[in-house]
Amino acid sequence: MFEEQNAQWGLVHALVLDGKGGARSIARTELDDLQLQAHESLWLHWDRSHPQTQTWLRKSSGLSEFSCDLLLEENTRPRLLQLSDSELLLFLRGVNLNPGAEPEDMVSVRIFGSAQRVISLRLRPLRATEELLVQLEAGKGPKTASELILYMAQYLTNKVQDLVSCLSEVVDEEEEKLDADERYTPEHGEVLQIRRRAAALKRFLAPQRDIFGQLTRIKLPWFVEDDGDYWNELNNSLTRYLEELELTRERVGLVLEAEDRRLSVRMNRTMYRFGIITGIFLPMSFLTGLLGINVGGIPFSESPYGFIVACLLMVSVALGQWWLFRRLRWV
């Protein structure tokens, strides 16, 4: 019920974390008078495109104009910015798993974090937040604001793993087909699409890896003690995915090179055979042309066995050429 009411204000989710892994929903109207207990944290997840979101952010959120400008920027990239009072801005990207969308288009989430409050903004639906809600409903979700940000980054990174594995499996299949069948021809459009996806994902995710590296070194007072270890694991995971994407690009290049090499060998073999056939029939064509001249004195023209003799002569020439080509190892 609260979600339907909040949607009119651009508020996708409004949750108070109970500090034990669960959360309770609140209405938009409760925000102004909300008093959090020491163990509680507030998570507000907004639709960035909604006009009411921008109004609330600038007039009622308590954030500085600088922070609001960054959170509402039209285009941005993964970044981390520490603010005064131990607050931070964190912009992350994830693969776009919405129906009809290309995964490499990416989706972004912009996060403001403080000791007891997390404000996140999205333009398109995020699978990561949906999974996070399931965990909170089951009482197994984040307990603090820092863990909430960590969970969100982890779910975004997990979606990258699924896509990277899928791309790698497609390349595996193409390599196996090339090895199993010499006449197999990969679909160049599909193979190049894999290469473009890998390049696009690497371009957008490489800065995010650097951000995870920075978060391993940041020691804000409201961070849980072992948060740095988890950020380091995310950094290592994303580094591995980026390496896999680079390897996928290289393997696609090898698949295309192997196909080009096969086509070149096949074409050379075909031209070689045509050359052999032409070499064999060229002298015979010369003989038939010479014997076909309408002048007197053609050998065996008066003999009833002249035609047979001419045929045997041409067969002899062909066999002689074949023997010569074999001797020279041309065939």
Explain the overall architecture.
The protein is an alpha+beta fold and 331 residues long. The chain folds into two domains: 261 residues, CorA soluble domain-like (Beta Polymerase, domain 2, 2-Layer Sandwich); 36 residues. It has a seven-stranded mixed sheet. Strand 4 and strand 5 form a beta hairpin. The longest helix has 65 residues. It is rod-shaped. The N and C termini lie far apart (83 Å). The model has no long low-confidence stretch (mean pLDDT 84). Pfam families: CorA. This is Zinc transport protein ZntB. Its main location: membrane.
Topology:
Blueprint: H1 2-7, E1 11-17, E2 23-25, E3 41-47, H2 51-59, H3 65-71, E4 79-82, E5 88-94, E6 107-113, E7 117-122, H4 127-137, H5 145-180, H6 188-217, H7 227-291, H8 306-327
Helix pairs in contact: 4-5, 5-7, 6-7, 7-8
Q: Are there runs of 5+ residues with pLDDT below 50, and where?
A: none
End-to-end distance: 83 Å
Question: Into which percentage range does the β-strand content fall?
Answer: 5-15%
Radius of gyration: 36 Å
**Helix proportion of residues, in percent?**
55-70%
Helix vs. strand class: alpha+beta
How many domains? The number is: 2
What spatial order of strands do you see in the largest sheet? 2-1-3-7-6-5-4
**Shape designation:** rod-shaped
The count of strands amounts to: 7
